[in-house]
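Is this the right way to post structure tokens for a design question? Let me know if I should format differently. Anyway, here goes:
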């Protein structure tokens, strides 16, 4: 998986950054949520005003102007490419593997009621454990895999009623 991040600002402007770009940023933390950034010989005073870590959504103040910022990493981009998104996930009736991997654990069983963001299973991919969360409230209809199974990208994992 790449170290590329897509950043959307105010739902109108999109930027792409690599880990190398971020590491090269000249930023100094002045307090927990405030930073001094220098880019192209221009100074910026920044502050993270609000953050929703689970949705990767932030309100960032730059030189007294607030911006709504959404960040997507490589996994987020893969999930979006498979048709999942915050808006459409409420109607998701099936969870498919976002990438090939090994199923380490299953936290649900058929007939079980789940809430949005409840952990469903753990998928190991590229030596990283990825917790697959429920995109909505509902009842688990079926589980198409077993603990220890190797899964392919797009393979059916869990169905909702």
């Amino acid at each position: 998986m790449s170290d590329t991040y897509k950043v959307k600002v105010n739902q109108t402007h999109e930027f792409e950054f690599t880990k190398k770009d971020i590491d090269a940023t000249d930023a100094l933390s002045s307090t927990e949520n405030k930073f001094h950034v220098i880019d192209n010989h221009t100074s910026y005073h920044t502050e993270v005003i609000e953050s929703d870590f689970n949705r990767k959504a932030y309100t960032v103040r730059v030189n007294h102007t607030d911006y709504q910022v959404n960040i997507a990493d490589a996994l987020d981009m893969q999930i979006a490419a498979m048709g999942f998104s915050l808006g459409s996930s409420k109607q998701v009736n099936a969870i498919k593997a976002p990438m090939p991997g090994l199923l380490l654990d299953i936290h649900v069983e058929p007939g079980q009621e789940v809430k949005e963001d409840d952990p469903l299973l753990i998928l190991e991919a590229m030596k990283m454990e990825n917790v697959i969360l429920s995109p909505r409230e509902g009842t688990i209809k079926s589980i198409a895999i077993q603990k220890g199974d190797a899964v392919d990208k797009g393979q059916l994992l869990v169905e909702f009623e």
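Format looks fine. Someone answered above. Worth noting: The longest strand covers residues 42-52. The chain has a mean pLDDT of 87.
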